[in-house]
């Protein structure tokens, strides 16, 4: 009986902790469910904001910017010119299926947004 009670307390404590984490993940990343990358990128360009979106994983990734070694000079120039911001909540240490879903959505959003910015930005200084 004591063992059962200890297990029940542990289970409910862990369940509560996981719910709290999912709530926090949803606060940070929930906006992605209704985000439209092309519309947001169009608005950003209209406001002169050419920053790209990055996501956290094992390292920092900027989707749609080539990552091959031979492209390192070009990639560095792109990042230097555009700068970037990180989608909060992205990680390679996923805490739930919901976090995994939102992390994937963040990657897709950043990829589409960055691709649009890179294809449509016209540098007037040239």
Would you write up a description of this structure?
With 126 residues, the protein is mostly helical. The protein has helices at 2-29, 37-46, 72-82, 97-120, and strands at 52-56, 60-61, 84-86. Strands 2-1-3 form a 3-stranded mixed beta sheet, with helices on one face. The longest helix has 28 residues, at 2-29. The N and C termini lie far apart (77 Å). Residues 1-18 form the signal peptide.
- The count of strands amounts to 3
Task: Determine the structural class based on helices, strands and strand pairing.
Answer: mainly alpha
In round numbers, the mean pLDDT is 81
Strand order of the largest sheet: 2-1-3
How many helices? The count is 4
- Radius of gyration from the alpha-carbon trace, in angstroms: 19 Å
Helical percentage: 55-70%
Shape: globular
List low-pLDDT spans.
4-17
End-to-end Cα distance = 77 Å
- Please summarize the sheet with the most strands: 3 strands, mixed
Helix-strand pattern: HHEEHEH
Strand content: 5-15%
């Amino acid at each position: 009986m004591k063992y059962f009670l200890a297990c029940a307390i542990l289970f409910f404590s862990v369940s509560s902790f996981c719910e709290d984490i999912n709530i926090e993940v949803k606060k940070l990343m929930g906006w992605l469910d209704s985000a439209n990358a092309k519309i947001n990128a169009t608005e950003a360009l209209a406001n002169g904001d050419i920053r790209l979106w990055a996501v956290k994983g094992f390292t920092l990734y900027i989707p749609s910017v080539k990552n091959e070694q031979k492209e390192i000079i070009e990639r560095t120039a792109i990042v230097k010119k555009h700068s970037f911001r990180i989608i909060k909540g992205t990680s390679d240490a996923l805490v739930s299926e919901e976090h995994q879903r939102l992390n994937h959505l963040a990657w897709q959003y950043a990829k589409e947004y960055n691709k649009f910015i890179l294809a449509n930005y016209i540098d007037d200084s040239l």
